[in-house]
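Need a sequence for this fold. Nothing fancy.
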């Protein structure tokens, strides 16, 4: 009897272990992704629950104002620009149609979204929707509850559509020169076809063109199920058909979704993390999923359309990528891709160089989109992606060509924000004086091409350009152009020209070399502080010297003064009501005092304690910010996510390190969230982070070893892990204030004397 009881207990215990282990192995990386995280914005643009395959140009999400939107604007077919609207819509309806909108607004329920699968119930319409994407094609399966005739309405916002038997084809203008094409097939042949004109349905017509052009396909009474598969192209309707035929052979949504699931698990599985909480794992893999939304691959079976010259090109065996907002993504997204997908990063930079060539001016793009380079924001940070990749041993692009494109983009194109005009008066002033001059209060703008909305942004442009010139000096050095390298290195110190030694902030200066008076670094500069800064205030731009933090420490007064200034920023109140502050600085959300977690120029700031002998404060601050602002809920992202720009910060920071200075092949150490993480570097190499005892309480590093050797500094070189390596950290509940204080992370070289 005792033996029986013992064996029974042993069996139960063993079963529990197996079941528990089964639960752990059952859940794959994509199962942790929550596309709804951040779908309600704190103030500006929310995240969208995007359904797509990694870096594919066929992307969709429910079209509504945000998660709280009560209606869906039809069913989407393709979103051509990150955060844009669908180019085409599909609207299914039951009944005999006499009139209808070209895009139906649906009440909906039971929505389920995974990166590779979308399901929703259109409750008032009585239609179940099941959807799965491939890379350039996708499939809808529709179930109608009513026996009434089934109808499909296809809409283009501005273009042409035609139907023939069970096919629909057409295009939409994305802008004045770029078109996106569609070719669709229905599983059944429609009974009749027509068009929607002024909300009236006219049958017997199979072609329509213009604004909100819509076709109607009506199917006989008793049609309960309808499959709709379609291809998308930026080349032609015929190519859209080829894309569909190449990728989707039937109308099986579940099978297509299963393929997508496998693809996502492979992409997300490049990084494995263990022993985190459910929320920590969800935040991590959701952030990693966001890092695969852009840029998108435009190559279609060996060719691609380029809006940079309006022509169709052979891709010569290399994918062509666009839709990359470099101002946001150079900071962490490109460095992350270097670790997990070197081949793709090579192809993306190669694509930048093709764009520069196709535009004819040889200028490196700054905001490449499907419609060309929009030249949004400020500075020329493509140069940072080039040198960061090159110094980390990526060789899939021509460095000489990249140098010329980056140099021309800085020298021949104006530094004025949001324009691709040639260099002019402000650019000549910058070359002569080393800063962009600010207008005095009340002084009218006289320089052509300065936007009345975006303004000059003189501090943001001066600091951003100084960083870009440092990156350019590194490329010149690699090419053996010593004189040019010294010149651009000298220019990289131009941030000193706008440093106010009395206030120890970067301070706007007029054309006469005098600081603008009566500046409040919290909110001076008009809407978005653009008269002086950009989207963020003077507290954010106080730290915007990514390439030379060591010199910034000296300017502010040494380690103690630097740490005191950092601490003061987190403790400085808004100084006015929230509604007043955010009415003036709507991008400056996610506040901790005057620190803004919600905008990319702030991402490196929490790591700066490492440069001033108090890395334990970086460890504390990183964990605090992750806990405060990145959560597994609808408002779990503090500001505009920008398609990976901010999510890459979360991925790095949860892993425990961060690339403060793209262009310097080094990483700052923070505080790893997971006791164990493993990064697949490719070619059989892995980088492991083992953080013994890491937990929500144990966030402080007690000791460290890198590749078996004691590590006393709060940073390491890319070369230390490029061929695989192990970072071992002993974590504890209280700070070891002696660890990491000896050797700060590297900064720019000494300023040379140039001729």
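Here you go.
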């Amino acid at each position: 009897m005792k033996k029986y009881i013992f064996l029974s207990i042993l069996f139960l215990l063993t079963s529990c272990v197996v079941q528990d282990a089964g639960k752990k192995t059952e859940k794959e990386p994509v199962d942790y992704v929550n596309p709804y995280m951040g779908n309600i914005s704190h103030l500006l643009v929310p995240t969208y629950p995007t359904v797509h395959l990694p870096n594919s140009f066929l992307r969709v999400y429910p079209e509504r104002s945000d998660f709280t939107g009560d209606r869906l604007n039809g069913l989407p077919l393709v979103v051509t620009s990150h955060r844009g609207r669908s180019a085409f819509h599909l609207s299914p309806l039951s009944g005999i149609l006499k009139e209808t909108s070209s895009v139906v607004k649906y009440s909906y329920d039971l929505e389920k979204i995974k990166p590779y699968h979308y399901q929703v119930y259109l409750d008032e319409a009585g239609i179940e929707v099941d959807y799965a994407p491939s890379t350039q094609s996708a499939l809808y399966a529709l179930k109608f509850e009513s026996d009434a005739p089934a109808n499909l309405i296809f809409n283009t916002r501005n273009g042409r559509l035609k139907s023939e038997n069970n096919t629909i084809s057409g295009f939409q203008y994305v802008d004045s020169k770029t078109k996106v094409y569609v070719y669709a097939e229905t599983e059944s042949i429609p009974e009749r076809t027509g068009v929607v004109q002024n909300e009236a349905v006219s049958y017997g017509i199979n072609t329509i063109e213009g604004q909100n052009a819509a076709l109607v396909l009506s199917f006989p009474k008793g049609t309960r199920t309808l499959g709709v598969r379609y291809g998308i192209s930026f080349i032609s309707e015929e190519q859209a058909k080829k894309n569909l035929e190449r990728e989707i052979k039937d109308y099986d949504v579940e099978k297509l979704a299963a393929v997508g699931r496998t693809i996502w698990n492979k992409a997300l599985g490049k990084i494995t993390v263990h022993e985190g909480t459910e929320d920590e794992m969800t935040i991590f893999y959701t952030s990693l999923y966001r890092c695969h939304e852009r840029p998108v691959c435009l190559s279609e079976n060996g060719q691609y359309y380029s809006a940079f010259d309006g022509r169709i090109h052979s891709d010569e065996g290399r994918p062509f990528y666009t839709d990359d907002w470099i101002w946001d993504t150079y900071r962490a997204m490109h460095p992350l891709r270097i670790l997990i997908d070197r081949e793709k990063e090579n192809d993306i930079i190669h694509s930048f160089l093709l764009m520069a060539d196709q535009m004819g001016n040889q200028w490196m793009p700054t905001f490449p989109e499907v419609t060309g380079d929009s030249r949004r924001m400020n500075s020329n940070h493509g140069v940072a992606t080039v040198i960061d990749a090159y110094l980390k041993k990526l060789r899939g692009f021509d460095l000489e060509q990249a140098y010329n494109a980056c140099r021309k983009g800085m020298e021949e194109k104006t530094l004025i924000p949001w324009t691709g005009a040639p260099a002019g008066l402000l650019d000549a002033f910058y070359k002569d004086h080393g800063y962009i001059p600010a207008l005095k209060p009340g002084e009218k703008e006289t320089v052509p091409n300065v936007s009345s909305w975006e303004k000059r942004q003189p501090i943001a442009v001066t600091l951003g350009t100084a960083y870009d010139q440092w990156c350019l000096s590194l490329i010149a050095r690699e090419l053996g152009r010593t004189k040019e390298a010294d010149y651009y290195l000298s220019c990289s110190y131009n941030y000193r020209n706008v440093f106010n030694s009395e206030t120890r902030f970067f301070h706007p200066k007029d054309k006469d070399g005098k600081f603008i008076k009566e500046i409040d670094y919290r909110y001076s500069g008009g809407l978005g502080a653009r008269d002086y800064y950009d989207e963020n205030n003077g507290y954010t731009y106080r730290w915007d010297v990514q390439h030379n933090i060591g010199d910034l420490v000296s300017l502010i007064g040494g380690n103690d003064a630097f740490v005191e200034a950092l601490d003061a920023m987190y403790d400085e109140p808004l100084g006015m009501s929230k509604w007043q502050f955010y009415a003036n600085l709507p991008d400056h959300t996610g506040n901790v005092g005057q620190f803004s977690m919600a905008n990319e120029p702030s991402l490196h700031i929490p790591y700066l304690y490492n440069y001033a002998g108090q890395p334990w404060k970086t460890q504390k601050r990183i964990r605090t910010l992750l806990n405060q602002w990145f959560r597994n809920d609808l408002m779990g992202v503090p500001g505009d996510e920008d398609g990976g720009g901010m999510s890459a910060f979360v991925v790095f920071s949860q892993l425990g390190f961060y690339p403060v200075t793209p262009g310097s092949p080094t990483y700052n150490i923070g505080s790893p969230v997971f006791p164990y993480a493993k990064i697949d570097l490719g070619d059989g190499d892995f980088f492991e982070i083992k953080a013994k005892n890491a937990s929500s309480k144990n966030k402080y590093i007690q000791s460290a070893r890198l590749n078996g050797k004691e590590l006393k500094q709060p940073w390491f070189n890319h070369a230390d892990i490029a061929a695989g390596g192990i970072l071992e950290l002993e974590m504890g509940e209280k700070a070891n204030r002696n660890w990491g204080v000896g050797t700060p992370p590297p900064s720019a070289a000494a300023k040379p004397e140039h001729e």
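For context: The CA atoms of residues 333 and 648 lie 5 Å apart.
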